[in-house]
Amino acid sequence: AGSKLREVFDKINNLLSGKPVQTEGQTVSVTQHPQGLEFVCYKLAEKFVRHGEGEVSFHRDSAFPIAVVLSGIWELHPRVGDIFLAHLHKKCPYSVPFYPARKEGTSMEEYQRMLGYEVHDSKVEEQDHFLKRMSGMIRLYAAIIQLRWPYGNKQGAHPHGLSYGWRWLAQMLNLEPLADVTAMLLLDFLEVCGNALMKQYGLQFWKIMFFIQKSYIPRIEAVTSAGQMGCFSRLKSFVQKCLQEQEIPLPKGILTPTFWRT
């Protein structure tokens, strides 16, 4: 509910503003320790990324309420946004976007960690789990860049707005595609903020969509094996349908004005 989200936002904002906050039966304040504020900014940013790889990867619609709170906090407390991006880029290099290359002397285990895989006791997480986590983080990022906290001061610019999404898309299309990963991330990104990018960039956006269909999708197909065609096929049909209808649908779960009255 919108009222519940406002409560969460106010509590986080009060904590970061140095006001005393009630939690689990005790009162806490960042002023209680010289590094209190820095610690809270760090842990809060880390928590938002964890929501992306956990909550959003399983419940895709949850990207929007989480993102709108972070967007508002980022506007008032830029340090949280900076640290959030640092955590996000480390956990999900594709959010840069960047495909790390394996350097000489780097062990396979270390390289897999650089690619975003979780490695415990030399055991690498399964591909499906890895893709789910990356998908959750990209969907959260794609939601953040288009959302603003509705009760904030709209005078200034969005701290990390749609121009960053445009840049992400352009940089992504300049990279050689990876099997599995590229198709999934592009589809996630376009599903979540394609509509907002279309409204903002108009004809330029449709040129990019046409480029994806004509040039980039064949390049993804060339590196995709028969067993990895699921996401590739969904991306291909999504782009084709959007170009045919000259419309990108609103993302499922977007927060409407009526949501804030709940």
Architecture overview:
With 262 residues, the chain is mainly alpha-helical. The chain has a single domain, classed as Serine Threonine Protein Phosphatase 5, Tetratricopeptide repeat (Alpha Horseshoe), CATH 1.25.40. It has helices at residues 2-16, 36-58, 63-76, 78-91, 108-114, 127-144, 162-173, 181-222, 229-245; strands at residues 21-23, 26-28, 119-120, 123-124. A hairpin with a 2-residue loop joins β1 and β2. α3 crosses α4 (78-91). The longest helix is centred in the C-terminal third of the chain and has 42 residues, at 181-222. The N and C termini lie close together (5 Å). It is found in: Cytoplasm; Nucleus, Nuclear pore complex. One of its GO terms (cellular component) is nuclear pore cytoplasmic filaments. This is mRNA export factor GLE1.
What would you say about this model in short?
By secondary structure, this protein is mainly alpha-helical. It contains 9 helices and 4 strands; from the N terminus they run H-E-E-H-H-H-H-E-E-H-H-H-H.
Topology:
Layout: H1 2-16, E1 21-23, E2 26-28, H2 36-58, H3 63-76, H4 78-91, H5 108-114, E3 119-120, E4 123-124, H6 127-144, H7 162-173, H8 181-222, H9 229-245
Antiparallel strand pairs: 1-2, 3-4
Helix pairs in contact: 1-3, 2-4, 2-6, 3-4, 3-6, 6-8, 7-8, 8-9
